[in-house]
Automatic annotation (TrEMBL), chain A:
Keyword terms, alphabetized: Cell inner membrane, Cell membrane, Membrane, Transmembrane, Transmembrane helix, Transport
Subcellular location: Cell inner membrane; Cell membrane
Source organism of this protein record: Sulfitobacter sabulilitoris
Similarity comment: Belongs to the binding-protein-dependent transport system permease family.
Organism superkingdom: Bacteria
Entry GO CC: plasma membrane
InterPro entries in alphabetical order: MetI-like, MetI-like_sf
Keyword Aminoacyl-tRNA synthetase: no
Protein known as: ABC transporter permease
Single biological process term from Gene Ontology: transmembrane transport
Membrane topology: Multi-pass membrane protein
Matches recorded under Gene3D superfamilies: MetI-like (1.10.3720.10)
Stretches that traverse the bilayer: 12-31, 38-59, 71-104, 125-150, 192-211, 223-247, 259-282, 308-334, 354-379
TrEMBL record, chain B:
Membrane-topology descriptor: Multi-pass membrane protein
Keyword annotations of the record: Cell membrane, Membrane, Transmembrane, Transmembrane helix, Transport
One Gene Ontology CC term in the entry: plasma membrane
PANTHER family: ABC TRANSPORTER PERMEASE PROTEIN (PTHR42929:SF5), INNER MEMBRANE ABC TRANSPORTER PERMEASE PROTEIN YDCU-RELATED-RELATED (PTHR42929)
Chief place where the protein resides: membrane
Protein name: ABC transporter permease
Region (Disordered) residue spans: 1-23
A single GO BP: transmembrane transport
Transmembrane domains' residue ranges: 54-74, 351-373, 379-397, 437-457, 488-507, 532-555
Family: Belongs to the binding-protein-dependent transport system permease family. CysTW subfamily.
Domain ABC transmembrane type-1: 347-555
Subcellular location: Cell membrane
Pfam families reported for this sequence: BPD_transp_1
Length: 392, 567
């Protein structure tokens, strides 16, 4: 966004106290960690206030002062607490130098409307910090799991070696565990055997039905839709209980087929929703044109309709796949030991707390979901482009 | 459809019914299609065909979902009221108990005890009495052991008669004599021709007609015995000696109303039967009521009999009453004692925690939704990844992450201790309680709140806020009176979604909830896999399902199920 407001340098009486306040805040944490919070506040405020003044009024040039601060604070950090503190100090240095110039040059004003009062500007940035904190909350668990999975010890927390960035603190042993343990490999094999078959079932039935549902005249459309969507709405524990009772009556409980059928049923709503959404933008005259040129319905479907709705079908299939691949409640009840899937194995591991191998598995699963997310996003863009609704 | 060249192709108009109406409105006689049929009928036929084709496309999936999903749910609803086990295991007793009046304060009459003896005898041969015992134990503690004990000792009662008959004549000891006497001629011939090693099915026992009239009780018991031996044990009936209960039935017949006709009987073993008929008056008899009381004095307690009577019907509301902390009493449903009520608290807790989770999701989701809707599209898309990534990550991964982070020795506590916020010896208890469940589930369900909020907020023009401010509104007024009311649909949609999802959650509370942070679904799982009280699990599930469907209905009214979007 172009600058909304012309900017001008701010007076020393504004930015030095603000930077000092930020320094006090940071000093509070560093101080408590070192033993005295109060001292930390005072030292932080004075040091950072002075730093801001020196950088802007004496050095004046931005790039050298930024790197200088990084080096200075990194060295201070190294003497206070070794390697990890050095990294933290470096980050602090970069942050404070940037913050000083950001305030001093008045750059913070550039992107907010000129008519805002100072309080409104303050609120504007406070609000962003709050949102940032919430987004960090959303992402932290994933960020914590990844480094912990390289832990050399069997602990679920960061060891001092890890915090010192000591290579001895890190290892791939949990990944080796995962690939060599027969329990985990069995679980992986079961997951890989169950999820694709369940996906295939729900995608083939679901696509057909979605095409049927998007015809202009469907009797009982709402009722049918409600039935087909219901596996997504009914709480999993209820589905699991019902399936357990019913499948044990008809002898499917504890069989591979039973689990596959159950997972296919759970995946169907996702296929229906995504494919129906894609079909909304499908031009019906294309099928008529194909029929007009002598194609029979099957050819029309595979050569004309299918290629156009394929992105929707694939992303529906990915949803169905991840539903089955992640599912644990239903398989816990409908399956038996022979159908132990990856999530089930993780669930048992978490309940009995065996080893951080779970974290290695979790990391692998996160990477898989990132790949799937990227695929779905690309497909969505492609589908929107095909339909002439390019993303804004 | 390529070969159809006449009117039907023309009928593929986008809206045949509109065209039909158009055709109807022209008063100048019926308009004809190319093949000579009236256009209206032809169009109607095309419409019908279209509907049929749509249904045919939907049918496979509909049948699939009905079989794999709806049928199990229906089965669960059925199980929550089903109670056939009592009347199936104790058919004679429950029959007689129907007339018994518990309020009169007297124990059931002697025939009831005799019926109970016969029922338990047959049930213990089929190994069904323990199942019944554990079923009734849900309603009255102690019944399980009572039935197990009775099952072990009930044989002794019948043996009193068996021994006397066998002492009288060795004829009564042999299974083949019984077969000759009871079986029909056809069956005896078939059985003689059957070769046990051939692998053929054993000829099924058939009763001799006149013996059923002469000795009705004995014949009935013998038929049950023969059926059990042949079908369930798959043994050769010829080599098996009858159960003791057959002898007591024979005693009943010989002393019963038909006794006089025995003198006229002339079939196999007539002389032995007549000799026995003459001797039975000297037999030692069993007082079943006293014998049962001997086994366990609970059989003379009104509670046991009342429970059996109360749960005799094939369908019961007992499970539902249990699920809402009530119980059946002779005076109708009543609340349980204060210290026995658990489900009310559990439902309240589930509601309370789901509300807390929904509330925190609104608090955290609203600012994020706002900022995503108000940032330039490129930045918003980048930040959206941060929202979608957890949404796409496996539930187990996120739950394990929270378990790792919230532990006493976990990342959060370690950080807090390092920062000096809490002392090392007073680390916060963040896991295995309600706090843990609420934190973890808020995180897990937050994307479900952000996405609907974002899509609603995107449609609110930012100019409205500026207009309000230029008209003199303060920041707060402009937000509260102008922006907020327009974002309420998003809050509603997100809240119902989060609430529906959280109320039925199982995995996360199970792992981070400990004992105080669990939901009703954890109790359902416990009843299915540990306590095996399936009926109660089904009743709890039914109540939960009703709540969720109610909310779902509201969601459909407010948002419309067709508007559910993913990703």
């Amino acid at each position: 966004m172009a600058a909304l407001t012309p900017i001008s340098r701010t007076p020393v009486s504004f930015y030095v106290p603000v930077v000092a306040a930020a320094g006090a805040f940071a000093g509070l944490f560093v101080g408590t960690a070192q033993g005295s919070g109060l001292l930390g506040i005072v030292v932080g405020a004075i040091a950072m206030g002075a730093l801001a003044y020196v950088l802007t009024q004496i050095i004046k040039s931005e790039t050298p002062s930024r790197w200088g601060t990084v080096v200075l604070l990194a060295v201070v950090g190294y003497f206070l607490g070794g390697l990890p503190a050095m990294v933290i100090g470096g980050i602090f240095g970069w942050l404070f130098a940037w913050f000083s110039f950001w305030l001093y040059e008045g750059r913070y004003r550039a992107k907010v409307p000129p008519y805002l009062t100072p309080m409104q500007v303050l609120w504007h940035f406070t609000f962003r910090v709050i949102c940032g904190a919430i987004l960090v909350f959303l992402i932290t668990p994933i960020l914590v799991v990844m480094p912990l999975s390289f832990n050399a010890e069997n602990f679920f927390t960061f060891t001092p070696e890890m915090l010192r960035f000591d290579p001895a603190g890190y290892s791939l042993k949990h990944y080796r565990d995962f690939f060599s343990s027969s329990d985990w490999q069995n679980a992986l094999r079961n997951s890989v055997m169950i999820a694709p078959v369940a996906t295939l079932l729900s995608v083939s039935f679901g696509t057909l039905a979605a095409i049927g549902l998007s015809q202009p005249h469907v009797p009982f459309r709402r009722a049918i839709m409600a039935v087909l969507i219901s596996p997504m709405i009914v709480p999993l524990i209820i589905s699991a209980a019902g399936m357990y009772f019913f499948y044990s009556r008809i002898g499917l409980q504890g069989t591979y087929l039973g689990v596959v059928l159950a997972h296919a049923a759970l995946g169907i709503p996702f296929v229906i929703i995504t494919v129906t959404a894609t079909l909304v933008g499908f031009d019906r005259s294309l099928t008529r044109a194909a029929a007009n040129m002598g194609a029979n319905p099957v050819t029309t479907f595979f050569r004309v309709q299918m290629p156009l709705i394929l992105p929707g079908v694939i992303s529906g299939g990915l949803f169905a796949f991840i539903t089955s691949f992640d599912e644990v409640v239903v398989v816990l009840f409908v399956g038996s030991a022979g159908q132990k899937t990856l999530p089930w194995q993780m669930f048992t591991g978490l309940r009995e707390q065996i080893s951080p191998t779970i974290l290695a598995v979790a990391t692998i699963l996160v990477i898989i979901s990132i790949c799937l997310l990227t695929t779905v996003e690309l497909l969505r863009r492609r589908s929107e482009r095909l339909r002439g609704m390019s993303p804004g | 459809m390529s070969d159809v060249t006449d009117a039907t192709t023309a009928n593929q108009a986008p809206t045949p019914d509109d065209a039909a109406r158009l055709a109807d409105s022209k008063k100048a006689g019926p308009v004809l299609a190319a093949d000579g049929t009236p256009l209206k009928r032809s169009l109607n036929r095309a419409l019908r065909r279209q509907k049929l084709r749509a249904l045919m496309l939907v049918a496979p999936l509909l049948i699939f979902v009905l079989l794999t999903f709806i049928a199990p749910i229906a089965d669960m609803l059925f199980r929550s009221v089903e109670n056939q086990i009592v009347s199936e295991t104790l058919p004679r007793t429950t029959d007689l108990l129907g007339d018994w009046d518990a309020d009169a304060g007297a124990l059931p009459e002697a025939p009831v005890y005799k019926a109970l003896y016969e029922d338990i005898f047959i049930a213990q041969e089929r190994k069904e009495h323990t199942r019944l015992g554990s079923r009734l134990n849900y309603e009255l503690t102690g019944v399980s052991s009572l039935f197990r004990k009775s099952g072990r000792k009930v044989e002794d009662m019948g043996e009193v008669y068996q021994d006397q008959f066998e002492d009288l004549d060795e004829f009564w000891e042999k299974g083949e004599n019984w077969n000759q006497m009871m079986g029909s001629d056809d069956w005896l011939a078939d059985h003689a021709a059957w070769n046990e090693d051939s692998g053929d099915r054993q000829p099924r026992f058939e009763l001799r007609d006149d013996i059923a009239e002469l000795l009705p009780e004995t014949a009935a018991k013998y038929e049950i015995f023969a059926n059990f031996v042949q079908v369930e044990d798959e043994d050769n009936l010829y080599t098996e000696d009858p159960w003791a209960v057959v002898y007591s039935a024979l005693y009943d017949d010989l002393t019963g109303p038909n006794a006089a006709q025995i003198a006229n009987y002339s079939g196999f073993g007539a002389d032995k039967l007549q000799a026995a008929a003459a001797a039975v008056s000297e037999f030692e008899t069993v007082d079943f009521a006293a014998a049962f009381e001997d086994i366990d004095k609970d059989w003379s307690s009104m509670d046991v009999w009342q429970t059996i009577q109360m749960y005799s019907p094939k369908y019961t509301s007992g499970y539902f009453l249990n699920a809402v902390d009530m119980q059946k009493t002779p005076d109708g449903p009543a609340l349980r004692d204060e210290n026995e009520r658990i489900y009310g608290t559990l439902f309240m807790r589930t509601m309370f925690m789901s509300l807390m989770i929904t509330g925190s999701c609104i608090l955290l989701g609203y600012p994020v939704g706002w900022i995503l809707a108000n940032l330039p599209a490129r930045t918003a898309n980048l930040l959206m990844i941060l929202v979608l990534l957890p949404f796409w990550t496996s539930l187990l991964v996120r739950t394990s992450a929270w378990k790792v982070m919230l532990q006493q020795q976990g990342v959060i506590n370690d950080t807090l201790v390092w920062l000096g916020v809490v002392a090392d010896d007073s680390r916060l208890a963040l896991i295995n309680n309600q706090t843990g469940t609420i934190i973890a589930m808020t995180h897990i369900l937050l994307p479900f709140m952000i996405l609907p909020l974002y899509s609603v907020m995107q449609t609110i023009p930012p100019t409205y806020l500026r207009a309000a401010k230029s008209l003199g509104a303060t920041n707060w007024t402009a937000f509260w009176r102008v922006y907020f009311p327009q974002s309420v649909p998003g809050i509603g949609a997100g809240s119902i979604l989060v609430f529906i999802l959280s109320i039925g959650y199982y995995i996360t509370p199970e792992i981070v909830g400990g004992t105080t942070g669990t939901f009703i679904s954890n109790r359902i799982a416990y009843h299915i896999s540990s306590s095996l009280n399936w009926g109660l699990a089904a009743a709890l599930g039914t109540i939960l399902l009703a709540v969720v469907l109610g909310l779902y209905w509201a969601y459909d009214k407010i948002v419309g199920i067709d508007n559910v979007k993913l990703g």
